[in-house]
Write a structure and sequence with these properties.
Elements lengths: L5 H16 L23 E6 L14 H6 L8 E3 L6 E3 L7 E4 L2 E5 L14 H12 L14 E8 L2 E6 L6 H5 L9 H7 L1 H6 L7 E7 L3 E6 L12 E6 L3 H9 L5 E3 L5 H6 L3 E7 L2 E7 L9 H10 L2 H9 L3 E2 L7 H7 L3 H8 L5 H10 L7 E6 L3 H16 L3 E6 L2 H10 L4 E7 L5 H8 L22 H8 L2 H18 L4 H15 L5 E14 L2 E2 L19 E2 L2
Parallel strand pairs: 1-10, 15-16, 15-17
Antiparallel strand pairs: 2-3, 4-5, 5-7, 6-7, 8-9, 9-10, 11-18, 12-18, 13-17, 13-18, 14-18, 19-20
Helix pairs in contact: 9-13, 10-14, 16-18, 18-19
Pfam families: SBP_bac_5
Protein name: ABC-type transport system periplasmic substrate-binding protein (Probable substrate dipeptide/oligopeptide)
GO molecular function: peptide transmembrane transporter activity
Length: 556
């Protein structure tokens, strides 16, 4: 694969990493356990369960969802998201960004920030960090998120000028996240990316103290943090793959935060020592349908799937209470925040289950019911659960369907080669429609560099574009060209009303083509021990245990 082709390929692969954390619980999903640490000068160590070990501590190369949040404790960004998701506030930036023109912004940088090694953070570090991610030669998985940036220029010791390729509706959100984390230029260059990934130096409120692969990550408080020293002595992430085990450790007080499965939800809510928070994961979960080859090339066969299923049964079969329906391929949280016409979409695009109508459509597509369907599924209760429910619906109308549980590697290969009929699929987005429409439904043939030669096409939309081109379906291609145009325009438009209209149009173009069978958006239940004071998780939280809004402490 060439350098230019890595963005779309990495975007696909980021999904599997994010779903490893989604549903395991809360923003710090997972499980753990070990003896409590002795408190030091502060209020003790906040012990958090996580389901996966760290592949790299370098935020520029990270693809792990849980570490995307944890990295905020090690690194800082120019801006920070407010806990309610309503906007951003200056963080390393010393005040709001100054708009020179539509594609030029100036950020003053605080002059009282030091990295963990004592070096002062300057504009050179900020410009270097942003430009490094933007450089395709570095193969950063964050590249697609900063493509709006042409160059970051240090125009003073503590002043950075951002030159944009185009206006971006997501600029401030990106500059508040770990896609734009600031690293020390001299240290990162001297170490090289691989060494820096194992021995990170940031400017955040905590610094890496110890890393025991497959066991724990220990962070200690940064006494020189520019917002003040945290009340906590440190944070410890302990790796236990099974959420149920982590919950046991939480219930005994050996750790302070862990995921809570649906089966344990009632028990946790009744435990006086545990506070339970149910949070929107802002993701999309469902099935991807192959629109290029196999039984679902014909749109009528894909439409039949909408009548074949009961959406509520699919949701329950996957996650029970820890999920909500998605509409227009967006989670309920996005629908609510943007006031999208979900009731109209439900009536128009989400029919009541009707097996007779499903069979009629299969017959119109020339299939009848005498055909086989293979449903491939990643491992996990949520994926195999929904796959089994779908299999049963096929069997109900006399269609032979099998479910094959495949490894993550096999699943990723099948997306590249198009070797599937229907497969489980999902995407971790955010509270903005762009997180779903640009990443899932654009035509990657129009990206800079396009797709690599060994990838069939845009797997996240089931090769819908490729199938329409191969069949010469001019009417569908016209709609798809418009879809690609507006999802790109929507991320380059700062006017919210205009973006709203774009996304309503996108839904009306996409839904009648049925490339994806949407099932649910996951919700995470995370339990926090009552020994933790002044701490409340948020789906928008960054540096939750220590920021300008709240400062956690341990009260044993």
């Amino acid at each position: 694969m060439s350098k230019e082709d890595t963005t779309s390929d990495i975007d696909r692969r980021r999904f599997i990493k994010s779903t490893a954390a989604i549903g395991a619980a809360g923003l710090f999903a997972g499980c753990v356990g070990s003896d409590p640490d002795e408190p030091g000068d502060g209020s003790g160590t906040f012990r958090i369960a996580t389901s996966d070990e760290v592949e790299t501590f370098d935020p520029r190369m990270n693809q792990m969802a849980w570490y995307s949040t944890a990295a905020h404790y090690l690194f800082d960004s120019l801006l920070m998201m407010e806990p309610d998701g309503s906007g951003t506030v200056p963080h390393l930036a010393d005040g709001e960004l100054e708009e020179v023109d539509e594609t030029t912004f100036v950020a003053d940088i605080r002059d009282d920030v030091t990295f963990h090694n004592g070096d002062q953070l300057t504009a050179e570090d900020v410009a270097y960090s942003l430009n490094w991610v933007r450089d395709p030669d570095n193969d950063s998985p964050n590249l697609s998120n900063v493509e709006f940036l042409d160059e970051a220029e240090a125009t003073g010791e503590f002043e950075v000028t951002l030159h944009l390729e185009y206006q971006s509706a997501l600029m401030e959100r990106t500059l508040a996240g770990m896609n734009a984390a600031i690293v020390p230029m001299d240290v990162a260059e001297e170490m090289g990316q691989e060494e820096f990934g194992q021995n990170p130096i940031g400017s955040g409120p905590f610094e890496l103290a110890n890393h025991d692969p497959s066991a724990s990550v220990e962070l200690t408080a940064n006494e020189d943090y520019f917002l003040g020293e945290p009340a906590l002595d440190g944070l410890e992430y302990r790796v236990i793959p099974e959420t149920e085990v982590g919950y046991v450790e939480l219930s005994t007080g050996d750790i302070h935060q862990s995921g809570v499965t649906e089966a344990l939800l009632d028990e946790a809510q009744e435990d006086d020592n545990i506070d339970v928070y149910q949070l929107d994961n802002f993701d999309f979960q469902g099935f991807l349908v192959n629109c290029l080859d196999g039984p679902f090339e014909d749109v009528r066969a894909r439409e039949a799937l909408q009548y074949l299923v009961d959406y509520d049964e699919l949701l329950v079969g996957a996650v029970g209470e820890l999920g909500s329906r998605n509409w227009g391929h967006m989670p309920q949280g996005v629908i609510d925040a943007w006031d999208f016409p979900a009731d109209e979409w439900e009536e128009q695009y989400y029919p009541e289950q009707d097996h007779d109508r499903a069979v009629e459509l299969f017959e119109e597509a020339g299939l009848g019911t005498d055909f086989d369907v293979e449903i491939t599924s990643q491992s996990g209760e949520a994926t195999t659960g929904r796959a089994t429910v779908l299999q049963n619906e096929f069997e109900e109308v006399g269609i032979n369907a099998t479910v094959s549980e495949i490894s993550d590697g096999e699943w990723l290969d099948s997306l590249d080669t198009g070797d599937f009929d229907i497969t489980t699929y999902g995407w971790g987005g955010n509270d903005d429609p762009d997180g779903y429409y640009y990443h899932m439904f654009r035509d990657t043939a129009n990206d800079d560099g396009g797709m690599s030669d060994d990838v069939v096409g845009h797997s996240s939309i089931g090769y819908l574009y490729e199938g329409a081109r191969e069949r010469g379906d001019e009417e569908t291609l016209e709609d798809l060209e418009r879809l690609d145009e507006i999802v790109r325009a929507a991320r380059q438009t700062t006017d919210r009303d205009e973006r709203y209209e774009y996304y309503v149009e996108a839904v009306d173009l996409l839904m009648p083509l049925y490339p994806v069978l949407g099932v649910y958006s996951a919700e995470s239940a995370t339990g926090v021990h009552t020994d933790v004071q002044d701490y409340e998780p948020s789906p928008f939280g960054e540096q939750e245990a220590f920021n300008q809004w709240q400062e956690a402490r341990i009260d044993d």
